[in-house]
Amino acid sequence: MVKRDPASFVDMMERHARWYKRPLFAGAAECPKCHADDGEYCNQCKGWGYVEKGSKDETCIHVWGSAVNVGRCLNNYTCTLCGDVMTVDSSD
């Protein structure tokens, strides 16, 4: 069996299966923003409906500030509430 990073969520089923109400990954918590509700895309949980348990994603509904360019297409966004940093590569 291949060892995987437990925070990668690769073993989770897609949340769009309505019959499935809890994640396969024991270290996951319901997203505080969308509450694992089937609807529009959630930027908190990236559409999974669950976030890593104990992470800032579980305790803060992020409000991302302005982008700070750190490379050609690499931008850092900082949450104005908790200070968490999200790095986005906008290249193709």
Q: Can you walk me through this structure?
A:
- The chain has 92 residues and is mainly beta.
- It has two domains: 54 residues, no CATH class; 31 residues, no CATH class.
- Helix content is 4%, strand content 25%.
- The chain is built from one helix and five strands.
- The strands form two sheets. The chain has a three-stranded antiparallel beta sheet with strand order 3-4-5, with no helix packed on it.
- A hairpin with a 5-residue loop joins strand 4 and strand 5.
- The chain starts with 27 loop residues before the first strand and ends with a strand.
- About 7% of the residues have low confidence.
Query: How would you state the average pLDDT, rounded?
Result: 79
**Integer count of domains:** 2
Which range best describes the helical content: under 10%, 10-25%, 25-40%, 40-55%, 55-70% or over 70%?
Answer: under 10%
Residue ranges: pLDDT <50 for 5 or more in a row? 16-21
For the termini, the CA-CA separation is 33 Å
Q: What topology, given as strand order, has the largest sheet? A: 3-4-5
Shape: globular
- Write down the secondary-structure element order: EEHEEE
Strand-residue proportion: 25-35%
What is the structure about, briefly put?
With 92 residues, the chain is mostly beta strands. The protein has one helix at residues 56-59; strands at 28-30, 50-52, 64-69, 74-79, 85-89. Helix content is 4%, strand content 25%.
